[in-house]
Structures are given as C-alpha cells and as structure tokens.
C-alpha cells in the first residue's frame, strides 16, 4: 500500500508552474530519494506533501485519505529541514518534547519517547544542552529526534546533510538508512546529490523542471535510464 500518493498534482507560484501534474507513489516502509537539480521543485513538493503549501490542481492522499484540505498539523507527517529549525532558547530535551506537549501528551510518555529517540540517535549526553552548544552533526540528530518522537507515518527530509562536512555526511547518511530500517518507517529524502541518492535509496525519483523523469531502484535508474537527462544526471560525478 502507498503511504502517500498524488494524482496530477500541480503547484504554481503566481504565473510560474513549479510542479507540472505529478503522479507519484511513495510505498509504505520505503526510503524514497527524490533527486534533481537545484530549482527543479523538490522542496516545493515536500512542502506540498507536508501541507505547508496548498496545491492548485490534482489530489494528494495519505493512506486512503484525500488530504488536499487537511492542515499540516493534522497530517501524520514530520519534516526535517536543512537548517534544522531548532528553538535556540530551549534545551535539546525541550526541543524534542515541544510538539508532544502541544498535543497534550502525558509527561511520562513524553519522557519515554524523548529518551528512546535520544538513545537511538546517541544524543543522550546532550539532552540538557542548548543547540548553540552542539556541533552541526549533533544538531542534525536533534532535528531528526524531534521528528522521531512524533512517531509519524512519513518522514520528509529536505537536504538534511548539506550543512555537514563530507565525512560526517557519509556517516549520517548511513545512520538515516539504518534508522529507516529499524523504525520500519516511510521516508522521503530530498537531495541534489546523485551519489547520495544512489547510496541511500530503496527507490529513486528523478525530477527535472517540475516533471518526474523516472522512478526506479538505483540499479534500474543507473542501468536503464529513461532518457538522456537521467543518464547524464545519474551518471555524472557530483
Ligand atoms: P529545489 O528544492 O529543487 O531547489 P524549489 O522547490 O525550491 O526547488 O523551487 C522550485 C522553483 O520554484 C524555483 O524556480 C523557485 O525559484 C520557485 N519558488 C520556490 N519557492 C517559491 C516561492 N515561495 N515563491 C515563488 N517562487 C518560488
Ligand atoms: Mg530545495
């Protein structure tokens, strides 16, 4: 079954059409990597899925529910941003607990979820620190922790590794892949880096100028590219 699917999804900013009628299926429990050049509409697509932007045409489903008009807070989706978007005045623990407190969850349950996620991400030693006392990699983990505690149906990642150095990027990449297997969850991971896409994905979605070019396993896309754009983009070094 699909966690998310879209039919003829169109998104415009004024007279600029950014997403040109996308038909997309994100199957349950897969790590789907959406890859394409800068400006092709990847962030816009994630924001539309998360409910942070309205769509102009088409339909969007989460599971069997059409969610076109369902606000972000009521979609069972958590988004991890490139700039982490942590609250600077709160500790790591408070950052992770905040959304759960807003939901009115019991304290004991919040504590349990925060500590479990912190253990999974190896950030327990930093729970009482504030974000500015953390390294980039640690902040990235806190941002992931904040999504994990919500136990969402789908995680959306918008270029979450682009602020990390190359060595750390490789490490966190592997950690996200492991997390997706441990949590048995659905993840949509956006990157403009084809190597990142090839190494992480169960399934790759290649996009160009707001149009999906190909969907397939990394092997399919590499060995049987649908067109010259895919061949050049996936085949070329980053
Ligand atoms: P990507 O994430 O693939 O780099 P984006 O989704 O950010 O691409 O942008 C796709 C296109 O939409 C670009 O041409 C960008 O300039 C435009 N765009 C993005 N956000 C807005 C906005 N809020 N208002 C107007 N145009 C936007
Ligand atoms: Mg983007």
From TrEMBL:
According to the entry, every stretch annotated as the ABC transporter domain falls at 4-234
Its membrane topology, per UniProt? Peripheral membrane protein
Gene Ontology MF: a single term: ATP binding
Q: Name one GO cellular component term.
A: ATP-binding cassette (ABC) transporter complex, substrate-binding subunit-containing
What UniProt keywords apply to this chain's record, in alphabetical order?
A: ATP-binding, Nucleotide-binding, Transport
State where it is primarily located: membrane
Q: Where in the cell is it found?
A: Cell inner membrane
Q: Which GO terms describe its biological process?
A: carbohydrate transport
Keyword ATP-binding recorded: yes
For this chain, the family text in UniProt reads:
Belongs to the ABC transporter superfamily.
Provide the protein name: Carbohydrate ABC transporter ATP-binding protein, CUT1 family
Q: What stretch of the complete protein does the chain hold?
A: 1 to 238 of 358
